[in-house]
Write a structure and sequence with these properties.
The structure is a single chain. The chain is α/β, with parallel strands linked by helices. The chain is built from 9 helices and 8 strands. The longest helix has 15 residues. Bound molecules: adenosine monophosphate.
Length: 216
């Protein structure tokens, strides 16, 4: 099963993705996580990518495509995966199609999580992330047991630079300009499925699960 999770920043892609990969035994390929991980390890790629990420800009197609190519074809060719946050541009989508073509495969489904701008701003500005394991919280809707401390690993929680108000607005504009065209791209291929992302986490998860169980 080869899936792609799409939606504006803050639509809940990452949190849903983690549960889906557990349920369906898929490799979770999140370009945002890969960039942050590389930055934490002080690798040159991560340091370079963070320059873009910090301002809410997209990392260049060249760097992004290369990091995904390496991940998909590292030791063995990944057969079952869920892509979270990639592709984000038509150029990336075309590169992905070419990569999969080489292995004679293609994406099975693209799940588009639909959420309004107002809901997104509210969600993202209150988001806090663990500096060690990457777990996410929300100051109102999903607070940690102890203020500023990760429930899972005890790491310090922080607000990602790209979760600050100006940066979120910037990311929403970029999403509309660069990533929304992908909706038509995948719709024309007959593999796009929409889910209402404004419901509770469980309701959204159940909707995605029902869709996958019915179609795949
Ligand atoms: P995410 O965790 O998916 O929200 O990604 C965080 C940030 O990483 C984004 O705002 C971008 O700056 C960068 N990023 C992640 N995936 C991509 C991508 N496919 N293309 C370009 N930049 C990306």
């Amino acid at each position: 099963m080869k899936l792609l999770m799409m939606g504006p920043p803050g639509a809940g892609k990452g949190t849903q993705a983690k549960k889906i990969v557990d349920e369906y035994q898929l490799a979770n390929i999140s370009t945002g996580e890969m960039f942050r991980d590389s930055y934490r390890k002080k690798e040159s790629l991560g340091l370079l990518a963070m320059e873009f990420i910090r301002d809410g800009h997209l990392v260049s197609d060249e760097i992004t495509i290369e990091i995904v190519r390496r991940r998909l074809f590292a030791n063995h060719v990944e057969k079952n995966f869920l892509l979270d946050g990639f592709p984000r541009t038509i150029a990336q989508a075309e590169a992905l199609e070419e990569m999969l073509d080489v292995t004679g495969s293609k994406l099975d489904a693209v799940i588009q999580i639909v959420v309004s701008d107002a809901v997104i701003l509210n969600r993202m500005v209150g988001r806090r992330s663990c500096s060690i394991c990457g777990a996410t919280y929300h100051i109102d809707y999903k607070p940690p047991h102890q203020d500023g401390v990760c429930d899972s690993c005890g790491g310090v929680l922080y607000q990602r630079e790209d979760d600050k108000h100006e940066s979120v607005k910037n990311r929403l504009d970029i999403y509309k300009e660069k990533t929304k065209p992908l909706i038509d791209y995948y719709e024309s291929r007959g593999i796009l499925f929409e889910v209402n992302g404004e419901k509770s986490f469980d309701a959204v998860y159940q909707a995605i699960k029902a869709l996958l169980d019915e179609r795949l």
